[in-house]
Design a protein that fits this description.
The complex is a heterodimer.
Chain A: E1 2-6, H1 8-14, E2 18-21, H2 30-40, H3 42-47, E3 55-58, E4 61-63, E5 74-78
Parallel strand pairs in A: 1-5
Antiparallel strand pairs in A: 1-2, 3-4, 3-5
Chain B: E1 3-7, H1 13-20, E2 28-35, E3 44-49, H2 53-68, E4 71-79, E5 81-83, E6 88-96, H3 99-116, E7 119-125, E8 128-131, H4 136-143
Parallel strand pairs in B: 1-4
Antiparallel strand pairs in B: 2-6, 3-5, 3-7, 4-6, 7-8
Classes of the chains: A alpha+beta, B alpha+beta.
Chain lengths: 84, 151
């Protein structure tokens, strides 16, 4: 089981701020995870449609599409940050 | 050690400066305060963040600044929640013996914070709400400092 968290318009498109997800066999990277989530629902597919507009963090560290994902991880998807 | 605070309530820039810039060795204090801009009909701003990662990421950026410059004080305060135009949203403060490291560290802190700290601005106007897009000019400003991002 992994914990997924979403922010800003990614959260709005998916319709929830977080969810638990059973990591399927063969899903080892952020890119794999994203493909699997997009296959699972139209809302996820809409949120993940333009990956160049998305950023990702694994266990609260900035990560990228090739970063590994394992059971117990917290994976966050969000737009490029706009603080300051 | 840098002090990092992420909070909903307003802060007082003068009080932050007094609290941080103490000691006879401090010869220069540079404070940057970012305010909410009310341009383009913005009536209110809602700032969302990633609790936990925000504090960690800002602490990493501050630690990087402390490695690069001989700082005697370093403080970052960032607000989240609902803010109105004109209100302070972020403060970065760097204190050092001399002005050059204080100026450079403060600029580095805000440049990196803007491109790495997980905050998102949503602007409220009479026409509705919109998520603010990231700016390439901010990426370029952060890239000037070249060195690898903090880990």
């Amino acid at each position: 089981m992994i914990r997924l968290v979403y922010f800003a318009w990614v959260r709005e498109r998916i319709g929830r701020a977080e969810e638990a997800f059973d990591l399927p066999a063969g899903v080892t990277t952020v890119a794999d995870l994203c493909d699997r989530l997009a296959d699972g629902s139209e809302a996820h597919a809409a949120a993940f449609a333009e990956r160049e507009r998305l950023r990702v963090a694994v266990n609260q560290d900035h990560a990228d599409w090739s970063s590994p994902v394992a059971d117990g991880d917290e994976v966050a998807f969000f737009p490029p940050v706009t603080g300051g | 050690m840098a002090e990092v605070r992420v909070q909903e309530q307003p802060f007082n820039p003068a009080a932050e400066q007094r609290a941080c810039a103490i000691g006879p060795d401090v010869g220069a204090v540079v404070t940057f305060v970012g305010h909410v801009r009310g341009s383009e009909g913005v009536e209110e701003m809602i700032l969302e963040h990633y609790p936990g990662m925000t504090e960690r990421e800002i602490a990493r950026i501050a630690a990087q600044a402390e490695r690069r410059w001989p700082l005697l004080g370093c403080r970052i305060v960032h607000r989240y929640g609902r803010l109105r135009p004109g209100e302070p949203i972020v403060l970065v403060l760097a204190a050092a013996a001399h002005r050059k490291p204080a100026f450079e560290a403060a600029e580095f802190l805000i440049d990196w914070l803007k491109t790495r700290a997980p905050f998102w601005k949503c602007e409220i106007t009479a026409a509705g709400r919109r998520w603010v897009d990231a700016r390439e000019s901010d990426d370029r400003a952060a890239a000037r400092w070249q060195e690898e991002p903090p880990r």
